[in-house]
Write a structure and sequence with these properties.
Layout (H helix, E strand, L loop, with lengths): L8 E5 L5 E6 L2 E4 L2 E7 L2 E4 L2 E7 L2 E4 L5 E6 L6
Length: 77
């Protein structure tokens, strides 16, 4: 299991493997808007605890939905 790096950038994938956002330095963006963040292994949505981080998977408390974090490769330039 990979370890979450709070300084890294990740693609945020839903259960079907579709990218639905990006996690950049612990902040979740969807369609360019800040939607939540991760702090100390807890996922927050709208400032309220809404799930937990398990490796590179966010598990939402409300319904158990799982979201995968996929490390973004650094751009070669």
């Amino acid at each position: 299991m990979s370890q979450y790096d709070p300084q890294a950038h990740y693609d945020f994938h839903d259960a079907q493997g579709i990218k639905s956002g990006e996690l950049r330095r612990g902040k979740l963006y969807m369609s360019g808007q800040l939607m939540g963040h991760i702090e100390d292994g807890v996922y927050y949505d709208g400032g309220e605890p809404a799930g937990k981080l398990d490796g590179l998977t966010i598990v939402r408390d409300e319904d158990g939905a799982r979201f995968e974090l996929v490390l973004q490769e650094p751009e070669q330039g």
